[in-house]
Amino acid sequence: MQKLSMPLNDAYDFVRQRKANISPNFNFMGQLMDFERQLNLGPCHCTCQASPCHCQTLHFISPTRTTPDSGIDVDHWT
Description:
Layout lengths: L7 H11 L7 H13 L40
GO molecular function, one term: MAP kinase tyrosine/serine/threonine phosphatase activity
EC number: 3.1.3.48
Pfam families: DSPc
């Protein structure tokens, strides 16, 4: 990404063309997104007014919501 000034999506496609079965984990993708922002390569989807954007939000993380198992009483099963 740094050497070729390549945004994350392009870098992902670049690697995937060479090895089709890649599956980077969630944490690693977050680190790559942070790196992309540090390099000022990716688009900013935030609403801040700073230019360049200095937000530290991971945009691919969905908002917190209740999951079906969030009401399970763990002590009940032990």
